[in-house]
Amino acid sequence: METRVIFGHLVEEIAREAGEMLLAKRPARPEVLATKSSPTDVVTALDRACEELIRSRIKAVRPDDAILGEEGGEAGEGRVRWIVDPIDGTVNFLYGLPEWAVSIAVEVDGEVVAGAVNVVPRGEVFTAVKGGGAWLAGERLRCNTGVPLERALVATGFGYESGRRRVQAEILGHVLPRVRDIRRGGAASSDLCSVAAGRVDGYYERGLNPWDYAAGGLIAAEAGARVGGLSGRPNSPGFTLCAASGLFEELHDLLLPLDPERDA
Ligand code: IPD
């Protein structure tokens, strides 16, 4: 079997197991264990336990691969790197909102080749293997096409630091009057899967980390969306924009003059 297909099976299997563990162990009101970039950027005990479970499963089958995880950072080096967000949408997880996900991707030589996003409370596992399409419950996903800016439902998200948020709110003030409406789901990986599934038409956000977009970005791309940064740059923590061609360019041209990559 082709290596990327094997990676596809592994990311899905591990994301499913991690999701089951989280559902079984999630207390009614999870406690905040620590904060990171700001007092609202939280870590719960289950973020850490889940990442440990995922790391141990990866090491059992692929002991020599590198792993980058939201909670544990980077370990190892080599051509193959796993990119893990044990709970994307931690604030939703904390509040009991049904929009949080386990996100796992595999990168080979810097290119994401397999990804799984398990939106656990909804029981939805989105998967993709590079060149093999994006899938949900046996159905091939296709993003919406031909949607003009003024009819586009656009998802976005906000960082945790107040200066960045002030700019993000300012940008939003220019976008909202130009589109159908805005959605703020609270989990970037799930937002990207929503583009893949045609549940929103586009998505943009400044300041994501690779664990937020690696798996979801592949899933959106395999569903036919364009995923990138601004001014022809690739998708990066600087900026992530995702939509079918046509809307991608319209959103890009609306956003670029607003200088959305600044934090003050
Ligand atoms: C966050 C979520 C959120 C996005 C933030 C991310 P976390 O990830 O994906 O939707 O707006 O930029 O940091 O902290 O819940 O893993």
Structure description:
It is a single chain. The protein has helices at residues 3-25, 45-61, 90-95, 162-175, 188-197, 210-222, 247-255; strands at 32-35, 42-44, 66-69, 73-75, 80-88, 101-108, 111-119, 124-129, 134-136, 139-140, 153-156, 181-183, 202-205, 226-228, 240-243. By secondary structure, it is an alpha+beta fold. α4 links the parallel β11 and β12. D-MYO-inositol-1-phosphate (IPD) binds at residues 70, 85, 88-90, 157-159, 186-188, 205, 207-208, 212.
Structure in a nutshell:
With 264 residues, the chain is an alpha+beta fold. It is built from seven helices and 15 strands.
Secondary structure: elements and pairs:
Layout: H1 3-25, E1 32-35, E2 42-44, H2 45-61, E3 66-69, E4 73-75, E5 80-88, H3 90-95, E6 101-108, E7 111-119, E8 124-129, E9 134-136, E10 139-140, E11 153-156, H4 162-175, E12 181-183, H5 188-197, E13 202-205, H6 210-222, E14 226-228, E15 240-243, H7 247-255
Parallel strand pairs: 3-5, 11-12, 11-13
Antiparallel strand pairs: 1-2, 3-4, 5-6, 6-7, 7-8, 8-9, 9-10, 13-15, 14-15
Helix pairs in contact: 1-2, 5-6
The structure holds D-MYO-inositol-1-phosphate.
Task: List its salient traits.
alpha+beta, 5-stranded mixed beta sheet, 8-stranded mixed beta sheet
How many strands, which pairing sense, and closed or not: the largest β-sheet?
Answer: 8 strands, mixed
Bound molecules: D-MYO-inositol-1-phosphate
Number of helices: 7
Strand order within the widest sheet? 4-3-5-6-7-8-9-10
| Regions with little confidence, pLDDT below 50 for 5+ residues | none
Strand percentage:
25-35%
Taken from the alpha-carbon principal axes, the silhouette is globular
The overall average pLDDT, rounded, is 96
Q: In which range does the helix fraction lie?
A: 25-40%
Output the helix-strand order: HEEHEEEHEEEEEEHEHEHEEH
Instruction: Indicate the structural class.
Output: alpha+beta
Radius of gyration: 17 Å
